[in-house]
Amino acid sequence: MSNHAGTSPVVIGREEQLRLLAEHVERSWSASSGTVLVGGDAGVGKTRLVTEFAGTRPAGTVFLGNCLQLGVDGLAYAPFTALLRQFLREHGQAIVEESFPGGAGELSRLLPELGDPPEGRQEARGILFEQVLRLVQRVAGEHGVTLVLEDLHWADGATRDLLVYLVRNLDLPGVQIIATYRSDDLHRTHPLRRLLPELERLPEVTRLELAPLTREEVAAQVTAITGTTLTSTRLDDLYERSDGIPLFVEALAASGENRAIGSDAVPDHFRELLLAALHGLPETAVRVLRVASVGAVSGEIGHTSLVHACDLAETEAEEALHTLVDANLLRVHGTGYRFRHALLREAVHDALLPGPRARLHLRFAQLIDESPESVPADRRAAEQAHHYQAAHDLPRALQAAWSAAERAGASLAHAEQLTMLERVLGLWDQVPDAVERTGGRSRAEVLSATGLAALAAGRPRRAWELCDEALADLPDAEDDHTRTVRAVLLRCRGQARTHCVDRGAVQDLAEALRVHPPHMPGYGVMLSILARETMFRPREQLHLGASSTDLAQRALDVAERTGDRSAEAAALVTLGSVRMSRGDLREGRAIIERSIRVSREIGDTAMEARGVNNLAHFLRERGEHREGLELLDGLLGEHRAWGRSGVHSSFMHQNRAEIHFELGRLDSTRSIVDEALHRSASPMHRVFLLVPWNRAAIAQGDLAAARSGSAHDDLAAARSGIARVDRAAVLSMERLDQAQQSVTAWLDLLLAEGDDTTALDYSAQVLDRLPLADSPGYGWAVLDLISEAVRREAGGGSGAGRPVRARLDDALATMPVHGPVQAAFRSTVRARLAEGSGTPERVLGAWGEAVTGWERTPMVLHLAAARTDAARAALTAGDRPTARTWVGEAHAAAVGCGAARLARAAAGLAHRIGAPLGGAATPPAAPAGLTARETEVLGLLAVGGTNAQIAKALSITPKTASVHVSNILGKLGVANRTAAGVRARELGLV
């Protein structure tokens, strides 16, 4: 029997794909949640495949959300909003109450019916994503759930971000995500084209590409539709014309109902083929379909809105709609309708003449004003902006775009907010009363809002450009309002330039503070932001006329006077952090703890996280690593239980990684950073995360990964080796802590690779350019590595290190020492410098002090390294028993931590001393065919030892040492002593 609806009653040619989806859902529901990306050309059958698969699943386990073509115009989170509403319809509002006993919180930004969203949370977007994740897992329960996201090629930026977050963080079984997209829509600059390869590399993601049907499958489809079998000639013609695309096969087959398939009467253009389905329909039905093509810009259209727009009697409209549904042109969807395929809607819409099309768009825009409830609140403003724009009603298009921008901002969809604000700016000069239509805001104020949105969307360069334009547009008036706008623009530009690592940032921040009237709203926030920023900048770079302590205290005074408790918490955490960084541990800690209490009282989880994070950072610097880690992990666990772990910034994960590294937990250090980078850390934060990861990799002997990031090929742009961070450019970074950490990673790598000359030259630049004493916590780590570069040069005897040694002595004289960790660093630096000038006994005494200093801290690898150096000093001084004790302890600690390079160096020294390791008297086999004595010589040569120094250390003659060096060069196949030192490091002998 012929199928007059034009759709095959059975799915043809997709049996294998259906099987793969069925296997995938079983794995996702029982073993590990996963995602399938289903791609293919328009009309290839992606929706039909997913619909067929969904029909095989238990009722209530499949939920559908469509990305909307309107999404490019600023409608954020559309498919997820649809999914969440389906959750509520299926399970009732109780599912939200059970998941979040404290209230819906950030979910209200997507579902206004749940109540008003919280205000003033700096990390609200992270909380929102976490709450969506938790709700999805709650809905999945024990039985599992499948989420279908259709037409991902139309997804807005916020939807893409949330999808990536779910894919990476669904760590429990029970959830299958299926996302479809048009492959042929992914032009060269399409954001999905860049995202797909990144997602595909994740183990939990599978990609499924739908190919066109084969000739035989096309024949089967036509037979299923028409009930007839084509001749070979007609089949060849139809297959050629349709390219095997099922939708076009359907259109051609349907057109063949009234004329011979393959005849010249069949239109060549597939758009005409799609429109051919309208032939023979009653004129009223065609009219209703045309109206629906205008109203269904978001994918669907409500019944009431469609009837009103058609201006037909209810019975007449219903008769037409029955005809369209029976013809499979429209499908019933909830309380409205959807087109059978998006291409069909596009074809009908594009076939409208310009005049009628504009009038219909205007009618739908007016209907939203007349009956706001006809469109969900989250879509209302964006749809209206679209309709007014298409109707060429520019004044109301601008006003609706402004409303859509406000809605996007409230939903934390900053990229979509930016898009709508830029549309407002694009229409500004064409709308005489634009100021009134944006709530009395001038163009400069709209530019300011756009710049802030760009900054929040992670586009600092665009924010900078917008601020430049706004400042040029702002009148020279000196009234309070204009000055406040100017100050906000300068502050925004200063923050943007900070993200762009531009040296003009501080001047902008200083001018913002000078310009902002103290009695105007926002002054306290301005002070708090500037206080935080100045914490990280050297004194000579500040042009504010006030220290970070003064700024924080003034911010606190303003907050207390105005009753702004959120600003109070921000000022307190900055003020306490400055005090702790200056060595006032007790008072600074008390102030930060007060900030944490205020944050908890007002429910500001982001500020609470910042307070705990900063407190843990300074506890680590004081050697209280375990207490700091308990604070961080405790807050993470508490917030995760409440669905709020999204508030934790990259800095918190960086602090966790730093603590794990200094406790010798190298594997977990790298795992923590991997997880944090999965959460899409911003470019500015990546360098902070990169440093502990690289230092852990170096300690493990994984130098290639540390330099090139080869272990992170899945996200090469986001996770890269330190070689991607220009070591000269970091010396110009305005944030001192960022510069210090980058320098630390670079020096560690250069020394590990044996590039001692470059390390020494770089050390000289660092000492000249960075005021390390302004941030002693990270500054001492830099001096520690510089002292190693100086020691190696001194061992080489060239004298090139003397100027660097002099600068290092000057730095030591002015460097503050707060707590046992910094005291141990100072002892270590002094011990290295003593090697170039002191007697063996004095050197041994200096290293003994360093060992004692590190024993007062939990930093096991720093202690093990000090013991290894102290053992060498003891051996030189003739104290073999002490050397054996220290090297044995160092080797055991290095092995226990997986620090391969340090373990090999300790083992080589133990062999020289004749010390058993781990109860075994047999030393490790010498590498590269070297004899035991040659291995000893190579170890000394690698740290810069001359023939005379090697001879003295091993109680041999300089001539014998020279013979050994020649043999070593030959066996290693290297040309000189420097290359031999590099090879020794590769072999783990130092």
Task: Summarize the structure in words.
The protein has 990 residues and is mainly alpha-helical. The chain contains 47 helices and eight strands. It has a five-stranded parallel beta sheet, sandwiched between helices. A three-stranded antiparallel beta sheet has the order 6-8-7. α6 links the parallel β3 and β4. The longest helix has 21 residues. The N and C termini lie far apart (83 Å).
Helix-strand blueprint:
Blueprint: H1 15-30, E1 34-40, H2 46-54, E2 62-66, H3 78-91, H4 94-99, H5 124-140, E3 145-150, H6 157-169, E4 175-182, H7 191-200, E5 205-209, H8 215-226, H9 232-242, H10 246-255, H11 270-275, H12 283-295, E6 301-302, H13 303-310, H14 314-326, E7 330-333, E8 336-339, H15 342-350, H16 354-370, H17 377-390, H18 394-410, H19 414-428, H20 434-437, H21 443-456, H22 460-473, H23 480-499, H24 505-515, H25 523-534, H26 548-562, H27 565-581, H28 585-602, H29 605-621, H30 625-641, H31 650-662, H32 666-678, H33 683-699, H34 703-708, H35 736-752, H36 756-769, H37 776-796, H38 802-814, H39 819-834, H40 840-855, H41 860-876, H42 880-897, H43 900-913, H44 932-942, H45 947-954, H46 958-972, H47 977-986
Parallel strand pairs: 1-4, 1-5, 2-3, 3-4
Antiparallel strand pairs: 6-8, 7-8
Helix pairs in contact: 1-2, 8-10, 9-10, 12-13, 12-14, 12-15, 16-17, 17-18, 18-19, 19-21, 21-22, 21-23, 22-23, 23-24, 24-25, 25-26, 25-27, 26-27, 27-28, 27-29, 28-29, 29-30, 29-31, 30-31, 31-32, 31-33, 32-33, 33-35, 35-36, 35-37, 36-37, 36-38, 37-38, 37-39, 39-40, 40-41, 41-42, 41-43, 42-43, 43-44, ...
